[in-house]
Specification:
23% strand; 90 residues; alpha+beta; three-stranded antiparallel β-sheet; single chain; 3 helices
């Protein structure tokens, strides 16, 4: 995964904040996916600025986390969303 890659959210994906969690719905497949509080923050940042390097910088500023750990967490997060067809990489 390239940190300079851009995240693309398909127009078929609808996101709704419920309490402190984000619910994502793919209106084409009718599958939904829930994000925990940290996943919700990452999603909101990707909506505002869909670049992985910007997300990484933001998360490093906001959370006390080792850079290597954060990179792995972002990689898992992005792969999961790609696997569920909620985002694509461009």
């Amino acid at each position: 995964m390239n940190n300079a890659e851009k995240i693309i959210i398909p127009s078929s994906v609808f996101a709704q904040l419920v309490d402190d969690e984000m619910i994502l719905l793919d209106t084409e497949s009718e599958n939904y996916f829930g994000l925990d509080a940290v996943g919700t923050v990452m999603w909101q940042q990707l909506v505002e600025n869909p670049l992985l390097d910007v997300l990484k910088s933001y998360m490093l500023e906001q959370y006390e986390v080792e850079e290597e750990r954060l990179e792995k967490d972002i990689e898992i997060f992005v792969k999961t969303l790609v696997d569920h067809q909620l985002i694509t990489l461009g």
